[in-house]
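Exercise 7. Given the components listed, write out the predicted structure of the assembled complex. Treat all entries as one system.
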Amino acid sequence: MKKINYILTALLGLSMQFAFAQTPKGSVLIKNATVLTVTNGTLENTDVLVQDGLIKRIAPDISAPKGVETIDATGKYVMPGIIDAHSHVALDVVNEATNPIVAEVRMKDVVNPYEIGIYRALAGGVTISHAMHGSANVIGGQNATLKHRWGSTDPADIIMQDAPRTIKFALGENPTRVHGRGNGIQPRSRMGVEAILRNGFSEALQYKKAWESFEATKNEKGSTAVAPQYNERLQTLVDILDGKIIIHCHSYRADEIYMLINVARDFGIKKLVFQHTNEGFKVAPEIAEYTMGASVFADWWAYKFEVYYSTAFNAAILQKNGALTSINSDSAELIRHLYHEAGKTQRYGGLTDDEALAMITINPAKQLGIDDKVGSLEEGKQADIAIFEGHPLSTYAVPQMTFVDGVKYFDITKDKDDQRQRISATETVEPIYLGHENHRCMQDTEHLFETANALFHTQH
Amino acid sequence: MKRTLLKASVLAMMLGGLLGWSQAYGQSDPSGKKPVTSTYAITNATVFANASSSGSKATVLIKDGVIKAIGSNISLPAEAQQIKGDSLFIYPGFIDGASRAGITRPEDPKRPDNFVSSNPPDEIAGITPWRNALDQFSIQSSQVDELRKAGFTLAQILPEGGMIAGKSAIVVLGDENSTNLLKENTGLAASLQGSRGMYPGTAVGVMAKFRDVYKNTELTQDRIAKFTSSTGVSRPEMNATYLGMSDVVDGKVPVIFTVGNDLEVRRAISLQQELGFKLVLTGLEEYDAVIDLIKSTRTPVLIKLEVPDDKAIKAQKEEVSEDVKAQYERVKEAYDRAIAQAGKLEKAGVPFAFTTLGVKVSEVSKAMTNMMEAGLSKEAALAALTTNAAAILGIERIAGTLDNGKMANMVISTGPIFEEDSQIKHVIVDGKIYDYEVSKKKNGKDKGEAVDPSGNWNYTSETPAGSSGGNFTIEKSEGDFSGEITYDDPQGGGETSSSLQDIEVSGNKLSFRFGVNAGGMALDVKVSGDINGDTMNGNMVIADFGSFTITANRTPSQIAKK
Amino acid sequence: MKRLNQTFLIFLMAMMPLFAMAQIDGEFIKPRSGKFLLQNATVHTITNGVMENASVLIEGGKILQVGTSVSADGAEVIDCKGMVIYPGMIDGGTTLGLVEVSSVAETVDYAEIGNVTPNMQALTTVNPNSEAIPVTRVSGVTTVMAVPQGGLFPGTAALINLVGYTPDQMYAGAKAVVMNFPNSGRRGRWDRRSDEEIKKETEKALKDANDLWQKAKTYHELKAKGAELEYYPEMEQLAKVISGELPLMVEVNAAKDIQNAIKWMEDKDVKFFFSGVSEGWRVADELAEAGISVITGPVQALPTRQSDRYDTPYANAGKMSKAGVKVAIRTNEAENVRNLPFHAAYAAAYGMGKEEAWKAVTINAAEILGVADQLGSIEEGKIANLIVATEDPFETRAQIMHVFINGYRIPLSNRHIRLYQEFLERSPDLKAN
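Answer.
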């Protein structure tokens, strides 16, 4: 019976979570701030009351309930916790780069709550990050949406358990380099990438049918039906086809973006977000019409050939064409100042404050399927909040405090030296890292690049 | 099982005939090695019958590998050879919860012509649940003797291999002419270790693959059940992997998961919770954060019998700036936390045992002392080495304490065990007595004499490009060394080799260099390390790239050695 | 019928220009020189304070006049009312022009083979037509140091203005021989050398450097005595440092290495400055005491150590500046040198203050590189590198309205802008699918 349960849960696309502890929830009253709600405009001299992890009220002159700490935010700006829709922070492994499709792998399995990057992100007002599989494969692993509850030792505590499932796809240079040129198997070209996708989904349909016919006949009297082979890789693709998983696809060129839209149309897939999307601006109307939009860099370009024909106006063009657009980091460094990255949409395309702020709050929340819970300052939402000195879109802004579920995890006045959670007992001198590897999209694929030089190249 | 046993015993017989005394010679033994009797009495010693015993004077009588009597007033049969135990302390023999002493890594299977790294055959991908540690085990290995010298009399041996390495077995660390097998198929050794350059390559792939193998084993069993109970059912495909996994799926044997830190502990436990198999964790080094989890899930744990080296602590200087001082403090805290873990586990009421996997056996005693200084009680320490281990291994009926009828496995020391100046003088395994030299001074390491590095070594090294490995051979002729090393060709296309240069040995340090051609770029690789018995631990420095750890094991070549 | 013909005729006439441009559509705007008066702006001179309602007159590539009553005198007048004028920003360390697409090896020209290649000239390989150049200059960065990368002495860096058809037209009058000071830090997470190994390697590298230095000295001395020596281009170039012709640009980052470098430079009577200096804040007083100037950055960077506070790279420039070190800021970037103003803004916000941060991307850089008589501030007689913006150009919301480099009025166009113009509203649009 137990056995059947497992298979059933797998078929239903549920991942069994064993009991995890209640995560901490806090209460706080933030007074007299300029409140940037993102969805309801800017409210001057306003208070935000948080109770038990939720935003209870947003109004002027709220008096503190008994026992609730009050923070005077006069002259300061309060905004929703920033959401990074593309990150690899807090992952022990980024790429299982050994197969063009590894839909079965789960990044939740390798979340590392000790990573200092979490705290550094909090110090930039970021409360949620989308910890993604890397871009080595056409279909990568299932990602984890993290809440930055710094200090916990249990990965389950920093995983946002109520976020929907998402999965990483990747088109273009990375999968063709890893598999085609690295391993001598398809895909070696963007044609091959499409073929891998169509083959995978077609096989998944057959897999689904095989199981359905087994389930339908197994209890018939005298049935000789036996269960098909279990295959979580195909099962995950079935879950995508059934709309249970949001695709987040690493992509650069317009043609490949358009290709995936066509594949998605053909297979009836609706939940699709493009990542990086440097040439998204060329097919902005298509992205706007058919997908959940694009999550882009503010200004990265020219680090590889497929991003040579980019524009920093990408986000603005996408936005003005009606595509849901967010700005992400894909970097342990950029994640520390996403508010500034969002600000660049004002230089490159003149977006309004609300439009720019939406790109790092409610828009990524929508793309991660968590906009009913976070992404704006609204009563009833989870109290993920960042407080800034200076308007967050100003380059002179300095984040002051960051809350997740009403619990303060970063306070600039209490930022002690040495925030590391885990120290080696055998370390004589702390290592100094001068050559930073901020960008980990291609981490764990190094072994696929045989020549020494490849180790030093940027591979976003 | 039968075949395995047969193979092992034939091997033992052959070696026995060659190297030692043997039943094959019948009653006579021209080598003079055959013992006169198999009955012994250690008289008037201080006996600690179990971990919590406070010790009392008694005589221990053993016959044919079994404890016959323990007491102060027992009559000794005429054939009993007496050993004066007045100044000696007797403890139950130690049990190594998981060990690779005497295990040789099997040759990597040849890759088929149609090999694709994205879908490799199970055997190449490190999925070999059918393999058996006994096939890889040699009692002749110097590692076995080293372990025995440290007081271990029984060990659960794990096979070498990848994510699912194969079946473990419990052996006594005894006679060279015996198979020494106590219990076979005691568990299935697994780890989160990926395969080099193929699927699954990383921990995240391994976990997914583990689920896949497990669930398909269940389904295969269902199909077999249906096939055997009714007609008209297609023949189920039974492959070695699913058959090898079935004892785990049936709950007959545990998965013995090698994990290092708390995150890996959580990963193994989450797989266990999700799939429902029996689990034993081994190799735990950093587990401070998961003591509650271990307790609440009642997971049996085999703690790595090692403490972090204190070089870093000792290297801390006095005159430093405030921020450096603060950092020193944190390293010290980490060290203190590490050595206090075992004591915390005891306080939490978790009955743990030890493993020597990846441990320097010569430093076991120091590790025990450190753990006890940091809060582990002597009783719990002894229990971990004896009764707890016996319970986790399911052999408490025959091992773990000194009682009438139990196996004659014991440690005999010159003083209370683990105390300074106390040394192990005899180890009795399965009724056979092994004598060890007791030196006047403790820890008298002889640094002067150089070790002999010659032999065949297989090595693995952790590089940024993942783990890599190969073999190197060192030959000695007229005091000079020469050798060759194989490694993965950086330009692709399998293995290639270079000759070794500047081979130098001083004390137990070995060093050499070799050149590698990487895409037209000549790389100079320097290897240096400490040889300890048949293992070498050290560093591999690749010019301009950095230094990577390397470990090597000498392939036992019995004929050359003994 | 007649009316119809007439309409048709009008229609045809309206179409005429289109026919004329059947092959070439649109007009290419080039940088153009001339006499310009930038009128009625707030002028931030950097060296002489802020002047309200002031104007700047430029001609022949130079700033002719700055003041509140400057007459046009035939100049093309550009109304800058409500706007700010700053000197063009100088990035003290980049690979701009030396690389086009960093992952395409064929386009990477900033590193040569060999450990001692001071004779490699960055200026030679600057690509005046790099797509990144027009992308950079519209942000207000008008001048950059193009720096070779690699071994101990990887080459000679050159300061370039971001306008011109040849490297020589772009050359802005400063060069420096680059030295990568032996570094004891780790190169990344995969660098697992032991502390001893690093120490040994560092010591060896330092010894090599000493030997080379001694050789260069000998070479210079013998040459000075008129000796005819064998062709030795590496020494020829290093000797220019010994003789004082060129400064030495010492790239050094870890605190300990900075201390070593300070010591190493003590007895060397040459012109030099430090670059990188990412752990400068740890030894700021020592740098100040030794009187060493630095070009530091990137500011938007990760801390060098896990235990460091998250803001140490942001605060680094300010801490050194407060200790009395002359600080310039660099991005160490190629295609995103345009972010220099934002790096400077972060330094400003985390302790440096706006005024010092502005100096760090203008006059300080010019002084350190020895071109302060030409660049780095709005002063009469200096080269006309100027930017006009709607507000403080450090702010992302600021729009850069005009850029002048070498007196040329720079078209505010580049690939990024052209793609915006082309794709903001597509034609045919989606419905034509």
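Discussion: The radius of gyration of chain A is 23 Å. Confidence is low (pLDDT under 50) at residues 1-20, 448-459 of chain A.
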